[in-house]
């Protein structure tokens, strides 16, 4: 098995990531770390481990790094993890066993566990957003890939590669194309990994705004059809499709508050309460999931964060459209 890890300025977590990989019970694997032109000591730290280290001459992005790792892989099975992912000791054994018993499956999808590494509100909330997406009941076949933890047969890459024009959601887009080409993608919610990612107010806000700007670029400039296909696909959960409504609900909330504060109108108060109820209904499965696995303060924080997310996505999307129209914006 070949383990491919793209890394960019990963000094804060690359050692812990590699410690977990080399603590695996299964020992017949190679590790390929592709450094995406880091400006910190990521490479120096990784060099202490028995890895094959490849270096990008410039910051190409994760898609290019994964493609480079694929070319260097010597095994028939390739496991992709991110540089901030912490795998359990039995994960490689389980991946190998799965493919041995499921010759018809091309890709095995894992997910984040229910235990955030950092305990502040934004880090936990973002962790649970990602872990919820993988917490499907039982094993199911899906049409997307999340390369934080995904294993694939190398034969998949005879026809397909990650799209290097995309700087965001390139793994999901890759999964959609794999599904179109007849590859079976199996999601196992019990195949979980840890995630060492910390968000504060500024990093969280920047991440959400950048995500919206990059998606504008992919949809309206690159005209990548798989952006909207992802949301329209029948195998995608409703809450993910309803994600696009967040900016609209945030706008309605801001307008309502603008008139409610000076007038103290009862009808506007009812509208305000209705918007909060609607936000809950649009993602009720996620909210119930939070009540089940997250601390209470995270469950309560999800209410205002829903609208804050909508605000950030609206800002990022608007900025992306303006830059595309007037400043020739590119995520590179």
Counting DSSP H or I runs of 4 or more residues, the number of helices is 13
Order of helices and strands: EHEHEHEEHEHEEHEHHHHHHH
Low-confidence runs (pLDDT<50, min 5 residues)? 231-235
Strand tally is 9
Q: Going by CATH, what is the homologous superfamily of the largest domain?
A: Spore Coat Polysaccharide Biosynthesis Protein SpsA, Chain A
* Name given to the CATH architecture of the largest domain: Alpha-Beta Complex
CATH class of the largest domain: Alpha Beta
Number of structurally distinct domains:
2
- Tell me the overall shape: globular
Give the topology, please:
Elements: E1 2-7, H1 14-22, E2 30-35, H2 42-46, E3 52-55, H3 62-72, E4 77-81, E5 85-86, H4 91-101, E6 107-112, H5 121-134, E7 140-142, E8 149-153, H6 170-180, E9 185-195, H7 201-221, H8 226-232, H9 238-242, H10 246-263, H11 266-282, H12 284-293, H13 296-326
Helix pairs in contact: 5-13, 6-8, 7-13, 10-11, 10-13
